[in-house]
Amino acid sequence: MNKPSLTTRLTDPRTLPLLITLGLFLLMFGYGSVAYRGFFSAQVFCNLFIDNAFLLIVAIGMTFVVISGGIDLSVGGLVAVTTMISATLVQSHHWPIWVVTPLVLLLGALFGGFQGVLIQYFRLQPFIVTLGGLFLTRGLCFLINIESITIADPAYTAVSEFRLHLPGADISANVLIAAAVFIGAVWLAQYSEFGRVVYAIGGSERSAVLMGLPVARTKVMVYMLSGFCAALGGVTFTFYMLSGYGLHAQGMELDAIAATVIGGTLLTGGVGYVTGTLFGVLILGVIQTLITFDGTLSSWWTRIVIGALLCVFCVLQRLLDSHASKRRTSRAAVGKTVAPAVAAGDATPAEMVAQQH
Amino acid sequence: MNTATPEATGWTKTLVRHPLFLPVLTLLVLLLVNRAFNAHFFHIENKDGHLFGSLIDILNRASPLALVALGMTPVIATRGVDVSVGAVVAISAATAAVLIGGQMQIVNGVEVYVSNVPLPFAIAGALLVGLLCGLWNGALVAYVGMQPIIATLILMVAGRGIAQLLTAGQIITIYYQPYFFLGAGFLGGLPFALYIVAAVGIVLWFFTQRTALGLFVTAIGINPTASYFAGIKARAIMLCVYGFSGLMAGAAGLIISSNVKSADGNNAGLLMELDAILAVTLGGTSLAGGRFSLVGSLIGALIIQTLTYTTYSIGVPPEANLVVKAVVVFIVCVVQSEPMRKLILRDPSLQGVTR
Amino acid sequence: MNAAASDLPHQHTGEAILHMTGIEKRFPGVHALKHVEFRLFPGEIHTLMGQNGAGKSTLIKVLTGVHPADAGQIMFAGQTVKLDSPEAAEAAGIRTVYQEVNLCPNLSVAENIYIGRFPRKAGRIDWSTLHENARTLLATLSLDLDVTRALDAYPIAIQQMVAIARALSVDAQVLILDEPTSSLDEDEVQKLFTLLRQLKARGMAILFVTHFLEQTYAVSDRITVLRNGEREGEYLARDLPRLTLIHKMVGREIDPDQLAKPQWADAKPGDTFIGAQGISRRGSMQALDLDIRAGEVLGLGGLLGSGRTETARLLFGVDKCESGEMKVAGQNTRFTSPRDAIKAGIGYCPEDRKSEGIIADLSVRENIILALQARQGLFRYLPRKRQDAIANDYIQHLGIKTPHAEQPIGLLSGGNQQKALLARWLATDPKMLILDEPTRGIDMAAKLEIMDQVLALCRKGLAILFISSEMSEVVRVSHRIAVLRDRHKVGELPAGQTNEHAVFHMIAGGEQ
Amino acid sequence: ADKLVLGFAQVGAESEWRTANTESIKSSAKEAGVDLKFSDAQQKQENQIKAIRSYIAQKVDVIAFSPVVESGWEPVLREAKAAKIPVILTDRAIKVSDDSLYTAFIGSDFLEEGRRGGRWLEDHYKGAQGPINIAELQGTVGSAPAIDRHNGLIEVIKSDDRFKIIASQSGDFTRAGGKQVMEAMLKSYGKQIQVVYSHNDDMAIGAIQAIEEAGLKPGKDIVIVSFDATKGGFQAMMAGKMNVSVECSPLLGPQLMETAKLVAAGKSVPKRIVTKETVFPMETAAAAFPSRKY
Ligand SMILES: Nc1ncnc2c1ncn2[C@@H]1O[C@H](COP(=O)(O)OP(=O)(O)OP(=O)(O)O)[C@@H](O)[C@H]1O
Ligand SMILES: Nc1ncnc2c1ncn2[C@@H]1O[C@H](COP(=O)(O)OP(=O)(O)OP(=O)(O)O)[C@@H](O)[C@H]1O
Ligand SMILES: [Mg+2]
Ligand SMILES: [Mg+2]
């Protein structure tokens, strides 16, 4: 049986972008360490996680949506409305944290599911539906309260100020939550039926239907997952800011999409890794950190650099892709015939497989 | 069951099936809602040769969006999308402001407003920058082969940075009087911006009806490979289509900056891309490419502007503006959706309702 | 047309596992299934036959819940069922390989086979078992693939085999194969048939669709013929002579021998239209000499993957030649895009009609005038009257079956789409046509019509490059045949010496 | 010794006032020989928090920032305190439970500014008949200047029942926002509006455009009270379209550098440092204009 070598694995157009992202991250971090005093420290590295935990969580939800071939523009609004609802319930109604948190998570998932239903059953474009979702969630924030609400609840403050002391650095509760989400997402993508069906839908939705896969359910669930992640992102954002505000997380949907794409996920769907998204988020974080460490660059350079990075990555993906399709046409991969079919005897193929295990 | 050809069915059904039926209906409903709240809504008065009134106001305000939506329509028809238009609006506004100049000069104690470069150059410069942005997008899509949403996302992300780079992060105020004519001037009683929209509309109409552009764009949108095999210059057309979208965003940037008399890299044209895509979709053009409707996009832009106007004028708190917009988007999209249309058209008891 | 159940031939005494009655299905402008009855018994191979557009695929899709039926009843295993999605059909024990290869190109081979029922360990997908199972299963089809590679790394034929493997991966009560053999070579077909016979012996009910008479008679126990969406009848294969079967399918008399007769007695080729000298492209074609004259059909012979389509793409400028020279009508030429080729008077009907040929949502009219308009350019827009005239002319001339010229072409059946594509090129008044598999997935009568058209065009002085996997068709229409193997030309059979045996001999030539 | 390192997290570049503020800080840092680490949060609080956290990691000597909103600063300021880095607020205050989280606050007294605006109105309408209808264009919702300028006005006019605020909406401190809100207000209230009380000049300029487009004369038909006294505001006043602009100086760079140096040297500074400001009615505008720096 032919097994692919490590090098073919690594240069596979589906994994190569991931490696490049990783390499780029190391390069940027390395550059910062050399160029700026105090950059090379465990705390700066951990700050990347502390400051971007919520983005990571949101981007992970986005990754699933994008792999399924869709897009979710509502996440930023959903984060904001989550902070708003949490803050209102905690401050004005004095609900305890352990009631508020599950409630907002449920609401987020339900809202995602609602969008999923519109997309799946009414055959609407994800772009338009989630754009409506963005308007709706942002609008709802301002209906709840147009001002920012500070949370003074001791439980929230405690979580917010919780620090796990690692040697040389501290991490916040948000980082722990994000880590759990990350591990769960990797498991979901690689080891669960649901995850593989998401990839199948992204590869070819029509085929997935004809293969008898639960496409409708999975698609709705993907948007539910994204809604859930956005709400969880909102919860962590609430811990981060200790306030609820309708203008929180503005444009976060763009950051999440950018992180996903830089992480090697194709917006056409079907290809992508959760790990890639992690590094996408870290790259965005490291750019910001570099710019603050430099202290003389104007903030608009952040945008220009991210745009340039997106550009480089996408051109790269294109190049890899056309290279791969060239290789495809050269048909190096056509298998060779082995033992004749009769060798199977009377057993059906399915049984043969069953007998072996 | 209705499998009969359109000729065999009643005129109501033909009407209901017309792709522009819903957009027009939505617009009418919105206008009537306004009329219900404001008796003077349809009233147009003539003040020193200028027409004033709510309708004129809506038309005027909708014109930048209408331009961008017109530019976006062919892009969407080729199965693309241009999410960079908002950023291009900002870039073009910044260019115009920088070219015209943000400084007022005091000569002998009297303020005079001068332009750094002659006005036509400033306008051409801003349009050119818009066009270049569009061509950049088009080149990425047509020649590099990127997905449209990503190719234009690049400029969307970087564009506002570029606009701020141009203005060095400042909000540049424009003092040069003649420039204001573009966005706030009147010609023959009507706002000048309307003439720009009309001119663009006519040019586009000519290109889609009197040349094969409409056919080619639709063909590319439905099946790019097959179109290429049939000998259509698919890449060149895509390049032009994106270039045109950029140009229109540039024009909108001019109108907007002239209207607010300043260029703000951060806020000019904010969320414009979303509104434009929405306008095109509300007008009945599918984001999946193929058949498109220019008139539909214009109506879509009017719907969005009327909606904004409505929420302000009927006293919906501005906070609720976004919610109302979202609800209208959901309703229109759901009603327009294939399953819903089928349901409505198939069930005879519902036909009265939709008429 | 509704034969009473008692009219049906009986062989099996048991209950039908599947019994569809009174099935109705309409698409916009098309009545695809008219009160169709169909039954399937355990332990039989039942072939569904009919011309293009007869409704075979539609019947299958109604059965598996892809399209909801407008009316009718489905009995499965003795009970009335309502299968409203492929998912439900799979769950009920119906495995289907649809006409188009329907797998996910981005997933690995193993995943494509097992997705939906992955082996698990401790609640998670057990990847090593999965890969092991996939390899074992593929071995029964004599395939040794790297099952962890993405499916799109493999050619269409292999993908088709993987699709079949997926259907076999679980013991089902009913197995449906809609034209599984159209992209397989003889060897692979035989392997498939061996397997089908084994499955039949174990009591599985198999529904099979093909256009190949040989294959039908090789495996079928029973044949149901559809015509124009109606059930023409159900027959035991051994009781149904071939000629009768063809008559039933087309509703008129066709002599199958007609297919085999070479038609080239009266050919009078003119000057060389295209002359290629050593054209090649890395990874696609080795240096190739080819010349095609006006008024002749040059056939390309070769096996699957021998490079016929690549040759066509080089000649049409889809792929750029990396070396070699090409003369068109005596002039040195270099095509860098299909446009260049079209300007030189060449037309190309691609192998993959759906993705490279038709523009599905455009009308038949627009599809027909498209190439002409593209050549004329943006500004010389054909007036609508002229468009209508051209479209209606060809619809009539080529006998394209469509309700009207404004019907979206995607709603036509395969054969009619092919004819419309032919019309697209004829409208440009070409000097040469490249036809890659114009007869693939097309029924007998339509095949004959297309081939007749080819011959007629040739008589009018067109140069034609004809590609088909059916060697008999190539032999029938071609004046000369260039034979390819492994992406290079191994020889050429001159006029008068073309026959199937000679082609195969030449292909095999270098082997020993 | 080493140069003093100051990390400054700016709000953004949302108005002319803000750019003048940025300019002042940058140039006075250069003059004072301070190594300035400047970052611009693009009006996003999370960006400011990130920047502050990064300054802590960089171990700068002093952190200063101009908060986007009042709330939500506690965790990161606690980190700064733990790292023993003094924090100076500029321009806007914050709400914290623990005052020791920052060392000093340099900035205008917005409440006082609001009162000044109110007092000017009382002065202007001395002896006039009521009711006097005010339309208020608020700044970014939840920001300190918006809240205080509103409260300052209320404080002054609540004892005078001729004044009535008939409409109040946020224009987000931007020109476009001011214009849009003003248009809406003119639609719903029309000529009832006698006074526009705009929380900054940019919004006021937007409002002036809206008023002109509605066919009314700003400065005459509608009295315009505004804040900041930027160049744009002065031009409007000189053109007779704006009646008064209450100064709010963005030029706090020198004061900031001075304070930062004191703080870094461990000297004590007053907790509240108010910038020196005045009121510019339109009559004095032309005379004062040439000496304006922003
Ligand atoms: N989704 C669809 N929408 C509209 N019409 C359709 C659709 N699918 C099939 N048809 C029409 O229904 C008829 C039957 O098509 P079907 O695909 O079942 O034929 P078939 O017998 O499988 O032919 P072939 O041998 O070419 O595969 C044709 O006229 C076809 O144009
Ligand atoms: N894995 C693949 N993915 C995409 N296209 C492929 C793949 N494998 C082969 N093809 C394409 O399929 C076509 C058929 O290949 P080729 O031209 O070599 O064979 P052929 O002699 O025309 O045989 P046939 O047409 O019968 O397959 C070619 O255009 C080739 O590029
Ligand atoms: Mg079929
Ligand atoms: Mg081929």
Order of helices and strands of chain D: EHEHEHEEHEHEHEHEHEHEEH
Q: Strand order, main sheet of chain D: write it out.
A: 2-1-3-4-5-11
Overall 3D form of chain D: elongated
Helix vs. strand class of chain A: mainly alpha
> Averaging pLDDT over every residue of chain A, what do you get?
85
Based on CA atoms alone, the radius of gyration of chain A comes out at 23 Å
First-last Cα distance of chain D: 34 Å
Global Rg of chain D: 20 Å
Measured by DSSP, the beta-strand proportion of chain A falls in under 5%
Number of strands of chain D: 12
Largest sheet of chain D: 6 strands, parallel
* Number of helices, counting only DSSP H or I runs of 4 residues or more of chain D: 10
Given as residue ranges, the uncertain stretches of chain A (5+ residues, pLDDT < 50) are 329-346
Mean pLDDT of chain D: 88
Principal-axis shape of chain A: globular
Biggest interface, chains and residues, is: A-C, 56 and 63 residues
Give the total of beta strands of chain A. Answer: 4
Number of domains of chain A: 1
Quaternary class: heterotetramer
Pfam family, one (chain C): ABC_tran
Organism (chain C): Silvimonas terrae
Domain ABC transporter (chain C): 18-253, 267-511
Keywords (chain C): ATP-binding, Cell membrane, Membrane, Nucleotide-binding, Repeat, Sugar transport, Transport
Helix-strand layout with pairing:
The complex is a heterotetramer of chains A (357), B (355), C (512) and D (294).
Chain B: H1 11-17, H2 21-37, E1 44-47, E2 50-53, H3 54-77, H4 85-100, E3 105-107, E4 110-112, H5 119-144, H6 148-166, E5 171-173, H7 181-184, E6 186-187, E7 190-191, H8 192-210, H9 213-222, H10 224-229, H11 234-260, E8 262-264, H12 272-282, H13 294-313, H14 321-336, H15 338-346, H16 348-354
Antiparallel strand pairs in B: 1-2, 3-4, 5-8, 6-7
Chain C: E1 18-27, E2 30-40, E3 45-50, H1 56-63, E4 71-76, E5 79-81, H2 86-92, E6 94-97, H3 109-114, E7 120-121, E8 124-125, H4 127-140, H5 156-168, E9 174-178, H6 186-201, E10 205-209, H7 213-219, E11 222-227, E12 230-236, H8 242-250, H9 257-260, E13 272-281, E14 285-293, E15 297-301, H10 308-316, E16 323-328, E17 331-333, H11 338-343, E18 346-349, H12 353-357, H13 364-376, H14 384-397, H15 414-426, E19 432-436, H16 444-459, E20 463-467, H17 471-477, E21 480-485, E22 488-493, H18 500-509
Parallel strand pairs in C: 3-10, 3-11, 6-9, 9-10, 15-20, 15-21, 18-19, 19-20
Antiparallel strand pairs in C: 1-2, 1-4, 4-5, 7-8, 11-12, 13-14, 13-16, 16-17, 21-22
Chain D: E1 4-10, H1 16-32, E2 34-40, H2 45-58, E3 62-65, H3 74-82, E4 87-90, E5 104-107, H4 110-124, E6 132-138, H5 144-157, E7 163-170, H6 175-189, E8 195-198, H7 201-213, E9 223-228, H8 231-238, E10 244-247, H9 253-264, E11 272-274, E12 279-281, H10 282-288
Helix pairs in contact in D: 1-9, 2-3, 4-5, 6-7, 8-10
The complex binds adenosine-5'-triphosphate (2 copies) and magnesium ion (2 copies).
One adenosine-5'-triphosphate binds at residues 27, 30, 32, 50, 52-58, 99, 411-414, 441 of chain C.
Pfam families (chain C): ABC_tran
Domain ABC transporter (chain C): 18-253, 267-511
Protein name (chain C): Simple sugar transport system ATP-binding protein
